[in-house]
Amino acid sequence: MIAVVGAGITGLVAAAALKRGGHEVALYDAADRIGGNIHSQSFGPYRLELGPNSLVLNDDLYAFFEDWGMKDSMVEALPRAKYRYILRDGKYQKLPTGPLSLITSGTFSWRAKRNLLKERSIPASNDPSETIDAFFRRRLGDEWTDYAVYPFISGVFAGNPADLLIAEAFPRIKKLENEYGSLIKGMGTSRKNQTHRGTISLEGGVGKMIDILGKGLEEHIHTGHRIQRLEMTAEGVILDFGQMKVHAQKVILALPAYVLAPLLSDAFPAMAGSLKAIQYPSVSMIFSAYKRADVGHPLDGFGVLHNHLEGAYTLGTIFNSSVFEGRCPEDEVLLTTFVGGARYTDRANESEEILKANVHKELVQFLSVKGEPTFQHVQRWPQAIPQYTQEILSSREEIQKLPSQIRLGGNWIGGISVPDSIQSGLRLAKEISGE
């Protein structure tokens, strides 16, 4: 029997793939539900994404949806969602979406625009410890780094680009530099090679994916089982869940690094030490609904991101009701605002009253909100997103030393996005089964 511990998207996909391949499998999770951070939930007329709000479609994700019967449930984002805003000079400014809008846009200076023309002539770097901040300042200059890259990293990692490693956090971008000698040339080529692109969700929300995968594993899922100890034997692995012990020939531990660290401390102390060093800053999500007539901003985009220079309280806001239909009553708008992250983790831990009040105050300031919210909800993630910093390099080395009966997975390795985690789950299933 192959045991999978951790029913987030990585473990869930791995277990589903193993079952499809004819293997005896059991899936365990400490929570009372499967799906990990992916959780779609309705509060009256408001449909909230308590984890990932949407998915970035690529050919691999499309193939997965097609293979697992989810393709017909895909929902494309509304056309206006292609626009993004950043906070600059105290107001929201729309990011360029193409060459023409770049030329006419006043969001970036002519010096910054000239830097894009020079990008093709900048040589690649072979430094494995180069940070995202250093990488983009080297290739694009300060303005693009401060007002495009920093907001983007706040939205994706809730992290600090000065700490995150480009080769670990965005290996595809680093690969473009190495292969094409230019990000702009490489990104243009890679987009042409992708047949399926865009922002999507599923009918009923991203959580529909969890429902579909879980339905095929019903009798194999064991929630409310928190693993306490792991022991290697000649026959395989013993998993101690406190109330029971499970004997498995092989095991996939699809768990966060901070859960894996104490679990592996006895049998694999070096591995545990490297995992313990991986940082997970806190993030809080504040959902706010307003009457459409009370919001002065057109909300004509996916949302807005903030950087570290403008002094904002929040990391940014998604305009949920502008991205997908059916998220709130027709005469209202629904927003998701993020607070905390690597730079401001203490803010995420403030009381719900403070979070709600500060977010409302900032929405009034930047979105020209006049009335009070019709709905607010706070979702806390005390250990939200793993940071791909220097500390993560040692964990990569230690993984190679693990016995073949154990495989590790989770969004601390192989990418933090849902599509990356899906591919990790499929890969883990193949590795552990020897297929």
Major sheet? 7 strands, mixed
Query: What is the residue-mean pLDDT, rounded to a whole number?
Result: 93
C-alpha geometry: globular
CA-CA gap between termini: 16 Å
Low-confidence spans = none
Task: Provide a descriptive summary of the structure in words.
The structure is a single chain. Helix content is 36%, strand content 21%. It is built from 17 helices and 20 strands. A hairpin with a 4-residue loop joins strand 12 (237-240) and strand 13. The protein is globular, with a radius of gyration of 22 Å.
Helix and strand topology:
Blueprint: E1 2-5, H1 9-20, E2 25-29, E3 40-43, E4 46-49, E5 55-57, H2 59-67, E6 74-76, E7 84-88, E8 91-94, H3 99-104, H4 110-118, H5 132-140, H6 142-156, H7 166-169, H8 171-180, H9 183-193, E9 198-202, H10 208-215, E10 221-223, E11 229-232, E12 237-240, E13 245-248, E14 250-254, H11 257-263, H12 269-276, E15 283-291, E16 303-305, E17 316-318, H13 320-323, E18 332-340, H14 345-348, H15 352-367, E19 375-381, H16 392-399, E20 406-409, H17 418-433
Parallel strand pairs: 1-2, 1-14, 2-10, 7-16, 14-20
Antiparallel strand pairs: 3-4, 5-9, 6-9, 7-8, 11-12, 12-13, 15-18, 15-19, 16-17, 17-18
Helix pairs in contact: 1-17, 5-6, 8-9, 11-12, 12-16
